[in-house]
Amino acid sequence: MRQLQLPAFEFTEEQKEFRKEVRSFLQAEQQKGTFDTHADSWLSAYSEEFSKKLGAKGWIGITFPKKYGGHARSSIDRYIITEELLAFGAPVASHWFADRQSGPLLLKFGTEEQKEFFIPKIVKGECYFSIGLSEPNSGSDLASLKTTAEKVDGGWIVNGMKTWTSGAHHSHYMITLCRTSPQDPKNRHGGMSQLIIDLKSDGVTIRPIQFLTGEHHFNEVFLENVFVPDNRVVGEVGNGWAQGLTELAFERSGPERILSTFPLLEEAIRLLKEKEDHRGLMEAAKLVSRMWSLRNMSIGIAALLEEKKDVNLAAALVKDLGNSFEQHVAEVIRLLLPAMPRKHAEDEYARLLAESILHGPGFTIRGGTTEILRGIVGKGVISA
Ligand SMILES: Cc1cc2nc3c(=O)[nH]c(=O)nc-3n(C[C@H](O)[C@H](O)[C@H](O)COP(=O)(O)OP(=O)(O)OC[C@H]3O[C@@H](n4cnc5c(N)ncnc54)[C@H](O)[C@@H]3O)c2cc1C
């Protein structure tokens, strides 16, 4: 049996100073009224203006090479920015996927032309990506997907449908996993490729699917004879599955898998202190200590990423533990501080409670369900 070892990590003085810089910027922006704090802000709070402000600060694509406008800084610096943005519940959804996974994917597998075209725009916070994986009958079993790309002169013709596509109505492009050759029963994961689809292309229709809250976050994306030029294929034709797995490691490993309900926890602690509710504070302290352990594990993954190590297994484990924690926060807090959750309440606590409860069911589905993550962990631990 394999043991999972995550390195212990101490922030340097320079990194602590950097955290203070990010925090002061966010405090100042909050005081100016640039944004309201939201739970689950990385998935549902959009502000192009705010994304561009972060880009101007040099805080998007911070690990990307300088050659493409990036800042060549460490994964730990990226972790610090990410953590502060989530703790403040800042509106970061517009650029999140481009910064977290599409940019790194293009840097790893993209052509020079793609890097020169897309990366500088991503870094500026002005080019947004969606993830086109899931289909109506292909979620966990993604290899069964039906969207096809057929080779024609100069490119590919794509037909099919994607669903649950986060932010497609705000994004410029969608990295789309599709079948470029028929499925071979002996190699279910072969014959798939990743294509960058311009969401303004002819033949693309984006239809909203509403959240429980009534919010418009994800979509159905219909693709009818969409032409994708050859220069928009990512990496090798037929290697889409392996490339997609790399992307999933970026997707699963960050602090957003722990901190979606942190703004609720922080607000609840403030109220419990105000009420001098010592029993309530003891219960909240249990949540904080659990969060602290998860955070250390998550920072350990950032340290592994810095060493260019494989984090697939560790990311699946921390995502599973982190997602159940995020849901548990809302469960515990609503009993400690009973209130009517209201999405549009002026009272911040009632609003954060509503967002945390109503977004909660998605935490353990998006980016891989609990059962799938546990399957990865089980197989990874035993097969080693
Ligand atoms: C908020 C949110 C945002 C999302 N954003 C995106 C996005 O931007 N792009 C995108 O492509 N997708 C996105 N998704 C879709 C998400 O990736 C899928 O919902 C997820 O992979 C599960 O697929 P499914 O919904 O088809 O469920 P299914 O795969 O049908 O699963 C249904 C249930 O069966 C269980 N199950 C399935 N297979 C197994 C198995 N082998 N063993 C044990 N149990 C199993 C699952 O764990 C689950 O409980 C998003 C989802 C949510 C909730």
From TrEMBL:
Domain Acyl-CoA oxidase/dehydrogenase middle intervals: 131-226
Q: Which UniProt keywords are listed?
A: FAD, Flavoprotein, Oxidoreductase
GO cellular component terms?
plasma membrane
One short Pfam family name for this protein? Answer: Acyl-CoA_dh_M
Task: Name the cofactor(s) required for activity, per the record.
Answer: FAD
- Where's the Acyl-CoA dehydrogenase/oxidase N-terminal domain? 12-126
Q: Which GO terms describe its molecular function?
A: acyl-CoA dehydrogenase activity; flavin adenine dinucleotide binding
Task: Kindly provide the name given to this protein in its UniProt entry.
Answer: Acyl-CoA dehydrogenase
